[in-house]
Amino acid sequence: MLHDIFISHASEDKDKYVRGLAEALEKENVAVWYDEFSLKPGDSLRRSIDLGLSKSRFGIVVLSPSFLAKKWPEWELDGLVQRQNSSNDPVIIPVWLDVSAKEIINYSPSLADKYALQASAGVQSNVQEILKVVKPQGSSLVVARDRLLSLGYNPPVVTDDWWHKAIEYTGSNELEGTFQDAMGWGRWGFPLPENGPSTAQKGERIAWAVLQTEWMERAEREQITQITHPDIVHDFINSSIGLEDRCGNNLHYLATYAPQTTIRGCSGLFEEQFDAALRWSQQKNNERRQTNSKYGSALTTDGTSPRCDEFIALRDDNFGFYGPATIACFFVQGHLMGPEVKFYDTIDYLVWMLSDQSYWLPKDHRSYLIDGMKQWGTWDWEEYDNWTHFPSNKDTGALSKAILKSKSPKDFKLTPRVLKDIKTRFQYSVEILGLDNSVEELVDAFIEKEFISDLILKRKRGRKRRK
C-alpha cells in the first residue's frame, strides 16, 4: 500500500502537533503514514526517511527542539538534504515547530537553507501549503482520485501502478464516437464521460473508468447475465459504486445487459423509469401505427409496426406484438450494433429456460421466450463452434449433422449417438449453470417441445427461399 505522504517526527511531538496535522490531511483525502516514524533515541533518521519515501510520494520532517535534541550525526542530516536535492520536485517538506532560523542554522546550516513551513502559522495553513505540493493543479489522476473518494471508493495514491488499467481503458473503445460506439465498451460497460481536453474532464473520465472496470470484472466473476435472478442483479447494481447512476442514465444499456429487469415487478429501483420508457416508446410507435407505417412490420405477428421498441417489449402486455424469435434473440445477444451481452452458448440459455431455475420468470414470459428460441432456431451446436469452453468429443455435432441430413421431421432419427451428443451437451449446461434438474428431465422437455422438428422445418423453408 502506497501513501501520499509520511511524517517523520520526534515521538514527543506526536500529540503536540503531528497527530493533528495528519488528521487534517486525511480530511483532505491525503493518505498519511506517520505512526512508524516516531523517532526515538538510537533510531536512524536516514533509514527512516528512505523507508518513508519507498512507500510514499512525499515526506514531511518536523524539525523541533525534541527533534534537534536527538543530535543526529552530520552524515544523517546531509543525507536528508541530499535526498531532497536529488529530485527535481520537493519530495521532502520541512516543518519548523517551536524553533527559530538561528537555532536551525546553528544546528545544521544545510537544513536552514531549505524552504520550510512554520508550524506557528497553524495546522490549516500548513495543510493548504502541503496540498499545493501533494495535489498540484493540472493532475488528472488527483482529480480522479478525489472524485472516487467523493463517491465512496477508496483508491490508492496516484503513483500506484494500479491506475494503469483504468487509464488504458479510457482509450480502449476504438469505436467511440461512431454509430458502433456501444459495441466497444465490453459487457456491463457504459459510455464514459466525454474525453475532453481539461484536467477536470480527464479526471472525471478516469474516475468512471476505474469504477467501470471494477464492476465489469465483478460481473464476469459472479456471472451476472440475462438469466441471473433479478434480486441478485439488483444486489450487484446496488453494491457496485456508481453503477446505479450509470444504469439510470443509460436505461437502454441496462435493458440489454439484464433484460429481465424490464419485466414488471423485476425492475427494482428502476420500476418508474422503465414505466416511463415504455410509455414513451408506445407513444412513439403508436404514431407510426396510426399512419400505417410499415416500419418494423416484418418483426411483428400482425404485420403492423411494433407497439414499442425491442428493449422494452418484455414490459408490454402484448410483448409489443413482436414475434417471439425477435425478442428471444434480443434477450440472448442484444442488438446487432449494441453492447456485448452474450455470456453463454445459445443452447445454454435454452437449457436454462427449460429448467426449474427459470420459474421466477412470469409464466407468459417463460413460454414466450421458449417459443422464441424455437422460432429463432440458432440453438444447435457443432464440434468447433462454441462460445464457451465445452470440451468437444467424438459425438459432438452429431445432432447438428442429423438435422442437416433430414429433409423433414420424419426423416430425423434419434440414434444412440445423437442422443449421447444431446445428453453430453446438456450435462455441460447443467454443470456451468448449476441447474437442479437432471439431464434426463431436460432432454425429455427438449424433445417433447419439438425443438428438433421445428429446426428441421425452419431449415427446409430457408432452402426453399434460396431456390
Automatic annotation (TrEMBL):
Ranges of Polar residues composition bias in the record: 292-302
SMART domains for this protein: TIR
Gene Ontology terms: biological process: signal transduction
One Pfam family of this chain: TIR_2
Listed PROSITE patterns: TIR (PS50104)
Domain (TIR): residue spans on this chain: 1-131
Classification via InterPro entries: TIR_dom, Toll_tir_struct_dom_sf
Positions of the UniProt region annotated as Disordered: 283-302
Protein name stated in the entry: TIR domain-containing protein
